[in-house]
Amino acid sequence: MPLHHAVPVTLTAAERKTLKKRARGGRTAYRDWLRAQIVLAAARGRASARIAADLHIAVDTVRKWRGRFAARGLDGLKDLPRSGRPRRITAAERAAVVALACQLPAATGVPLSRWSGPELAAELASRGLTGPVSASSILRILAEHPIRPWQYQSWIYPRDPDFAAKAAVILDLYQGYYRGRPLGPGDRIVSVDAKPPSRPAAAAMRPARRLAASRCGSSTNTSATAPWPYWPPWTCTPERCPPPPPRRRPGSPRSWT
């Protein structure tokens, strides 16, 4: 059986500080903590068998990281790069994805204002530029480049060729004209917004509770936030502010004051 000689480990002040930080860190990954413990124990001159027994790991694991650190320092404690599965999307297909994302949808005949991942995947498949590529793969390809076609603000940069003619109607209304004719006193402009009401608007539609008459005379002006009708304290009169409702005496459910 061949004898294994322990590789001597020597630490500099900076390396010792880094390894101790990893060994004492509460958020250090377990693999980094274990490798730091192995190297620190080896630097104290302990044998590989004793380190393995103290950390409850195999001796070969101790020899592996001990030798890597002795050969390459802190860089030896990192995992070696793995080849992994080869890329299924070729470089030519990746270039086709980026090239299509840089084009406006209107220029390609697609009735869209801006690209998204699923729409890019459908357009690439219809043209036969790529094989079956998912929308998530397309977004990962675009993430490697400073390209964000789905973040393009189309309302700032209009792409509609008839935008000027459509906007002229709205601009004329602001000037008081419609189809070249000035608006008269009886003309009305109705603006409809399909957006659902917000929380403040929905709260305003609820039945408003009348304020207690005890608010009258208060030094705090709540007329800006109180439901209508509300009269400011300086305008309260007996007609406008009725007396407060009777209050129930504690301990006597049927007695009133």
Overview in brief:
This protein is mainly alpha-helical and 257 residues long.
Supply database-style keywords.
mainly alpha; about 260 residues; elongated; single chain; about 0% strand
Walkthrough of the structure:
With 257 residues, the chain is an all-alpha fold. Among the domains are: 13-77; 91-151, no CATH class. It has helices spanning 13-24, 30-43, 48-55, 59-72, 91-101, 117-127, 135-143, 163-175, 199-204, and strands spanning 177-178, 181-182. Strands 1-2 form a two-stranded antiparallel sheet. A hairpin with a 2-residue loop joins strand 1 (177-178) and strand 2 (181-182). The relative contact order is 0.05.
Encode the helix/strand succession as letters. Answer: HHHHHHHHEEH
Sheet with the most strands: spatial strand order: 1-2
Instruction: Please report which band the strand proportion falls in: under 5%, 5-15%, 15-25%, 25-35%, 35-45% or over 45%.
Output: under 5%
Biggest β-sheet strands, sense, barrel: 2 strands, antiparallel
**Segments where pLDDT lies below 50 for 5+ residues?**
207-231
- N-end to C-end Cα span: 103 Å
Mean pLDDT: 75
Annotation, overall tally of beta strands: 2
Give the structural class. mainly alpha
- Helix amount: 25-40%
Counted by DSSP, the helix tally is: 9
- Evaluate the radius of gyration: 38 Å
Estimate the global geometry from the Cα principal axes.
Answer: elongated
